[in-house]
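In the current project phase, the collection of sequences with tokenised folds has grown. A representative record is quoted in full directly below:
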Amino acid sequence: MIRRLTREDKDAVSRLCARAVSEDFIPLYFDSFVDEKIGFGFEESGVLTGVVFSSVALDGEAWLFGLRVDPDHRRKGIGRRLTQRALEEVSESCRLARVGIFTDNYASLQLARSFGFSARANYVFREFRGSPPPLPETCLKRVGLENLEEVFGRLASDSRLQQNNLLLPHFYEWFRLTRESLGILLDDGSVWQADDELAVVARSEAPDPEVEFGYLSDPCEVILPALLDRFVGQEPIEASLPADPALEEVLERYGFAVPSWGSAMTIYERLLP
């Protein structure tokens, strides 16, 4: 039986996730997921054996995420049935669905392809584990809404964003690069500038405080050390950025390392009926 998840399912979901995935983020954010997004669970004889979540991003397009199936109940079609239910739900209000799959998760990749998803963009994840580099005399400042058209023009002409057309202002709140979504980031103070370089930086408070670099312009040799000097010591720093060997080399040089939970992800998408 598939049913909607409620806050009362938190302990059961936590137990399921502990069996399915190491260092899972779902239990940490479960309350907000249930309150702000849509969660479905698959229940057998009163036991929760699978879950999936969906959300509608700022651009009105849907994301599916957090598909988990108990290891003892896999290969029974539970993941397929949950995915189908989540797609039916978001099809009522969205025209496009996306899902992010780590590159070594072959089972989820096969499932997504069987539902008609195709690869759209590639992203890498890194965690800062170094120390702030020597800081040159750099003026780091926030960019405001008055610069919307200028910043949008610059981002829209960035070759990496032309290919991917997705910003990652927070790990599970990706959205397409549009004037509306960029305006929200500018209004939130998430866009930064140093010299002629730009960055999008998201901050989360509770329950897991962190700073996330969702975009760094090319080059980023000025703004990256300035951002590190600004944020190091406050919260953990992560980078969730479009895959690019040159950018990955810069991140490594400045002290970013591959996190234990995954290094690369492909975004898949499909049109909804």
Remarks:
- The mean pLDDT is 91.
- The chain has two domains: 2-94, 126-265.
- The domain at 2-94 is CATH 3.40.630.30 (Aminopeptidase).
- Residues 78-91 form the longest helix (14 residues).
